[in-house]
Recover the amino acids of this structure.
């Protein structure tokens, strides 16, 4: 029988499970809402309600200092990366089933490994590079489904999201020490709110009261998901928390089938399995310090 997890790790796992369950709710609502509203508008309200949620947490737990930043330039850079990550993913959801998008987004650990070697000078080693290469072969299979001559634009948008997310992770990893837990998600969502808000008058469609409520739920779930994951990674080791991200594809399959009647094709299932296996292999190497 396996030894029980220490209390902090159990709490970290529970927070991770909560976070990775909340994100698919946000994504499902975004996919649903973009059927009737412009993507810019849905992103604006999602970011607005997220930033309110995160601000409330930061102020309640640390007062004004909980939202303070010593590196505004860093927050702007990371916010731009976050805009690419969110915008790419939400656009991809308008073109592809949820599970298809998640399968491509799971390339992020592979991209982070590659970027850490190229941008941070971290030693990657031949086995890690081999895992990255195999994983990207799976991504290419999902970008170009069988029988299609051109790359799928939704899949390309998901890949842009994965790259942007990875850049965001590299920024936090390299320069993020000293910033508060709420600072990065707060300023990231604030920037998205400002940028999409500037474009909102040109595309605005007045939402019904019910749809505005869904937009609020969407944003609050996104904000809570970020806070859950921040808490999980702060109190439990990354190798304990990270594998639970793959639960998202199960939620994506469930919500995609129930809400939209979507099922991923065989190419996505095979390619996604290759990407996930490569990511877990990299994680195992990190745990062993190889």
């Amino acid at each position: 029988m396996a030894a029980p997890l220490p209390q902090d790790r159990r709490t970290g796992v529970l927070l991770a499970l909560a976070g990775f369950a909340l994100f698919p709710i946000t994504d499902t609502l975004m996919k649903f809402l973009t059927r009737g509203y412009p993507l810019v508008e849905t992103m604006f309200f999602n970011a607005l309600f997220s930033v309110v949620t995160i601000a409330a947490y930061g102020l309640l737990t640390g007062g004004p200092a909980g939202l303070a930043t010593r590196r505004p330039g860093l927050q702007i850079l990371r916010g731009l990366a976050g805009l690419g990550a969110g915008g790419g993913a939400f656009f991809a959801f308008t073109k592809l089933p949820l599970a298809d998008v998640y399968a491509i987004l799971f390339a992020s650990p592979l991209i982070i490994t590659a970027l850490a070697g190229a941008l941070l000078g971290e030693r990657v080693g031949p086995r890690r590079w081999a895992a990255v290469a195999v994983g990207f072969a799976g991504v290419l299979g999902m970008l170009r489904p069988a029988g299609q001559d051109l790359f799928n634009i939704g899949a390309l948008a998901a890949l842009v999201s994965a790259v942007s997310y990875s850049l965001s992770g590299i920024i936090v990893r390299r320069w993020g020490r000293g910033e508060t837990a709420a600072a990065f998600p707060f300023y990231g969502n604030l920037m998205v709110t400002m940028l999409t808000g500037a474009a909102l008058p040109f595309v605005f469609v007045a939402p019904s009261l019910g749809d505005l409520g869904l937009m609020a739920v969407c944003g609050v779930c996104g904000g809570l998901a970020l806070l859950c994951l921040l808490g999980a990674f702060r109190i439990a080791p990354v190798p304990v928390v990270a594998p639970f991200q793959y639960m998202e594809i199960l939620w994506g399959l469930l919500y995609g089938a129930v809400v939209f009647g979507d099922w991923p094709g065989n190419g996505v299932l095979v390619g996604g399995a290759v990407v996930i296996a490569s990511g877990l292999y990299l994680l195992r190497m990190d745990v062993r310090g190889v």
Remarks:
- The first helix runs from residue 7 to 33.
